Amino acid sequence: MELESLPLTPNGKIDRNALPEPKDRQQLTETYVSPRTEIERTIATIWQEVLKVETIGINDPFFELGGHSLSMVRVHSKVREAFSSDISLVEMFQYPTISELSTYFERQKSKQPVVEPSESRNERLTAGKKRLQQRRQKNKKS
């Protein structure tokens, strides 16, 4: 969410209480796809709790929903508990959508190696870089 200026306290610090609530998924470019499996529903519920967002699709990127590193730590803790898993925090950052995280857990259950094809990873990185460039251009115009 972009703001023209940050609200400040009389001391000149950022007034966090005066910040607007993050908007729902309206600003996302991803098409909404609802959770289909029990794993996806569980992860979505955790994200909704932590991010305080009502509607989360399985392809919505965690950080574009308003997530940050500290909220990822909270999600990590709840996910580990929900799935009795020892997934690392680093792995959580590697799978930033419910769909990708769900695939990780499904592969863990079936003991398949959790290695993403480099083509898929490169496509995601390229798409992410493109979105970042678009945001930067939009910010320059503002």
Can you put this structure into words, describing what you see?
- The chain is an all-alpha fold.
- It has a domain of 89 residues: Non-ribosomal Peptide Synthetase Peptidyl Carrier Protein, Chain A, CATH 1.10.1200.10.
- It is built from five helices and no strands.
- Helix 1 runs antiparallel to helix 2 and helix 1 packs across helix 4.
- The longest helix is centred in the last third of the chain and has 24 residues.
Question: What are the main properties of this structure?
Answer:
single chain; Non-ribosomal Peptide Synthetase Peptidyl Carrier Protein, Chain A; mainly alpha; about 140 residues
How are the SSEs ordered, and which strands pair?
Blueprint (H helix, E strand, L loop, with lengths): L37 H14 L17 H15 L5 H6 L3 H13 L7 H24 L1
Number of separate helices: 5
Measured distance between first and last alpha carbons: 14 Å
- The level 1 CATH classification of the domain at 27-115 is Mainly Alpha
Number of strands: 0
Parts with pLDDT < 50 across at least 5 consecutive residues:
none
Assigned CATH architecture of the domain at 27-115 = Orthogonal Bundle
**Main β-sheet, in a few words?**
none
Share of helical residues: 40-55%
- CATH topology of the domain at 27-115, by name, is Non-ribosomal Peptide Synthetase Peptidyl Carrier Protein, Chain A
- Helix/strand-derived class? mainly alpha
The CATH fourth-level homologous superfamily of the domain at 27-115: ACP-like
Instruction: State the shape.
Output: globular
Strand content: under 5%
- What do the pLDDT scores average to? 84
Nearest-angstrom radius of gyration? 17 Å
* String of helices and strands: HHHHH
